[in-house]
Amino acid sequence: MQDLRVGLIGCGFMGRTHSNAYLRLNNFFSVQHRPVLQAVCGRDRGRTEAFARTWGYGRAETDWRRIIEAKDIDLIDICVPNVAHKEIAIAAAQAGKMVVCEKPLAMNVAEGEAMVRAVKAAGVPNMIFFNYRRVPAISLAKQIIDEGRIGRAFHYRATYLQDWTISADVPQGGAALWRLDAADAGSGVTGDLLAHSIDTAMWLNGPVRRVVAKTETFVKERRHAATGKVQPVVIDDACMFLAEFANGSLGTFESTRYARGRKNFNTFELNGADGSVYFDLEEPEYLQFFEYREPKSDKKVESHLTGWRKIHVTNSEHPYMSHYWVPGTCIGYEHTFLNAVADFVAGLESGTPAQPDFESGLQTQRVCDAVLESAANGRWVEIAA
Q: Where are the domains of the chain?
């Protein structure tokens, strides 16, 4: 076993998911690296020390530079608001550390490009946590598409709906609500939610060529949690856009935090000449698949049996599931991060880097920026390769 000494920067919700993944890696995956939770960094000393005790980190810091400069840390894990991704990632790469980062990659394309240049120049392993790729059912959809079972793609449609910001009394900013503050987040649902949908779409259906979008901010002013002052809200509460993919298919994407009753409703459907796939994160253990079969002149087509299959993705032959339980038993949200860490470590050991890396994350950032540009000017925007 080789120790993989982890320095985690950020001890909020995502810090918990990543810490759990490091702790459980060797329980479920036969890899040659053993994560060691060396240090965690947060802004509040007491909260960070409590986090370190809970998850077993060796020490707590309040200055992320101390973690990057430390000689006893191999991997920097960035779980802080988007505004800090660039500075930390570049410093980590320049220090020769491996670096992994929560999504979206950056505040904008320019920052993302600087991050990609830094990891390439340093030659350090890197990955961005688009964890939904690691849902077994979504990975199975990828397998089905790669096997040619969908055929020529025609339509891709995605939704990502939540409802937690409907009340005008919800403040913006601060440690808990930084996603509503453009200064920390860069954008609203586009970077926070649609980045997931865009990454999944391009993984399954190839590059996006151009987009046209509409965004809306329903509550125009909110009290800032840090200052107490009422100030304008400039992030997007909702976003809808049309997309043209490089393969000629058309896409529709919708995201909002104003869909009453929807907590984390994340779906996609891809329709092709030979079949379709559909996924709903509210039923993550299932993938729906429709297969079309051409009539055979020498054989009767059993059209009375044609229909969607609802595949329970829990068999050992399904992606990732051989590492867990017996068929029919499900894994959860936390396992998507465990699967991601396992893929990253496997990439270290095989020499084939895990995806999505920073460069892949940058392409998603290009689409996000194009969506916001289109919403601002009302025109189609081309996506740079």
A: 2-132, 134-377
